[in-house]
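Hey, can you fold this one?
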Amino acid sequence: MIKSIVRMSAVVVLAATISACGSKAPRPVSELALADSALKNAEVAGAREYAPIELRIAKEKKAAADAAFADEKYSKARKLTMEAQADADLARAKSDVEKIRLALQEAEDNIEMIRKEATRTSNTQ
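Sure. Predicted structure:
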């Protein structure tokens, strides 16, 4: 009887030790919020128009992170949220670059128009 109690106690201690070693990673709540914020910033920057592929990828990774979080796979959720945030930041940056490129093109077009007008005006005088 004492042997079975000792064995049972050993099994309980071993199980507790194993479960403590295999404890889950902390919940990535702040990482999920940061990824949401990065997605919103990308959309505000015009990523739907200027970087739709990167934005779609970021949203897909964020959805996968949400699913992993719901399944309590916190390490996977953290990794996916970090990737989603990076992809959203890329989408925002590409949007910013494209808007700057378009503004530069417009400025160059305006300069060219002014040059032509100045040349035309000076030739007629």
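The chain has five helices and no strands. Let me know if you want another pass with a different chain boundary.
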